[in-house]
Structures are given as structure tokens and as C-alpha cells.
Amino acid sequence: GIGVATYFTKLRLLSLVLFVTGLINLPNILYYDSNAYNNKNNGNNTITSFLTRGSALCDTTEWVPCDGCERKDFEGKFKEEDGTITIERYTCPFPDLGYGLVNFGSFIFLLLCFFLMDKYEKQREIRFDERKQTAQDYSVVVNNPPPDAYEPEVWRTYFSKFAEDKKKGVTSISVILNNHQLLRKLTYRRLWRQQLLRFLPKAKGDNAIDLNDENIVRYHVSMYLKEQEGSKNGFCCNLWSCIFMPLMNTFGYYLPPEK
Question: Which of 259, 232, 230, 229 is nearest to 246 (CA)?
């Protein structure tokens, strides 16, 4: 489909964009990986991890006096010996403005590439869709039909008048009824019946309760309400009954047993 075709195209473009972005940042990578930035142990860079080499990570430190410093502000980097307070600080130099401009330029380059990639992908989707014909390209949707026009054969006869070949004019017809309110009420009915089963006695063998028998259901519900009146509810039950139950009842998601 269109999604699979555009996915691999976008993957190739993204790989190319990220490769070029890495080349743009190559001066920064070489600088941060050099001894000019992180110089320790007689001129040897101590950062050996492949994932952190070339990054701004600095492990070159020194202990310097700091009068008035408190331990809580320098956890793990605070020492006090003979009344002298020293803290550990990093000694890597602050990069020049040019290195920051390289980062900013690569960021602008990425934004521009992503914008152009989005434009290109939309044009490619259109071209791909035009080359590959599907049933959707030959479909007709009527959004404002007459209220009584729900017979498929009536629609077939009407649209067949516009076909040159009467045998191949109309392949299939679907009529969607405007009955969403009825479906919503049927959904709520099923939900409420499932909730009602939680309050009725468990069915055993042939003693299953028929929910369609209103008299039996009312009898078991009245017995359940009598049991609830004689029991003490805890804090959670009262909270549920006073706050959450009325709120859910407002949206039609919960009805008490007596309803």
C-alpha cells in the first residue's frame, strides 16, 4: 500500500539527512574528542566509550578552594581538610562561538530537511495513488439521500443509467442507516444487563435467572436492596455511592440496581 511504499522512501531520506548532519557537526566532534578540550593524564583523552567520544562530556577536574561553600550544594564534590573547603570543578574550556554556530546551523538544516521531506512525501503519495487504482477510485458516496431511500436495488437502478455497460455498471451498494442513537441505546442496554448480573444470585444449573422475566428480576433486586440496607458501608463504598456513581449515571455508564 501507500504507507509501505512511503515508509522505505522516508527511511532512506532520513538516513541521508542524518548522515549529512553528522558531517556538518564533524568539526565539533573532532574538537570535543581532542586533547584541546579534554586533556588528562599527560595529554591522553580518558573518554574511551564509543557512544560518548566526540561529545561535550568532560571528565577533567581539579580541586579548588571555595570559601563559604556548603556541603549540601556540592554532594560528592566537596571536601573539608584542616578548615579549608575545596570543591571539584571541571577544567574543560568553554567552546568558542563558532562551535555553537555549527550546532545551530545543523538544527536549522534538520528543520528545513524535515519540512522538505514532508512536502516531498505528500507529492509522492499523490503520484503513487494515481498509478495504483483501487475500488475507492470508482466509489460514489451520497451524503444527503432521501429519508426513505434505503433499498439497495433502487440505488442500483438509478446509477446503472449512467453506465455504458449495464452488466458492469454497479458492482456493490452499501446503505448505512442513520440509527446511531438506537445502536447507542442497545449498547447501554447490554452494559446495564451485565451490571445487573453482578447484583443477582449466581446461576447454578437450571436455576439461571432469566433477565427477560421482569417479575423475577424485580424480586431478586428487592432482596439485594434489603441486604444492603442492613449492612454497614465503609468509606470507599460511601465515596463511590455519593460521588462516582452519580457522575457515571450522568453519562449513562452506570445505573443503580433499583433502576
Answer: 259
Rounded to an integer, the average pLDDT of 32-40 is 75
37: burial class by Cβ within 10 Å (0-12, 13-18, 19+)? buried
The answer to whether 121 and 115 are in contact (CB under 8 A) is: no
Number of residues assigned to the chain? 259
- DSSP 8-class letter at 137: G
Does pTM surpass 0.85? no
Rounded Cα distance, 129 and 132, in Å = 5
Phi, psi of 141 (to 5 degrees): -115, 125
pLDDT digit string, tens, across residues 161-171? 877 776 677 87
157 within 8 A of 166, measured Cβ to Cβ: no
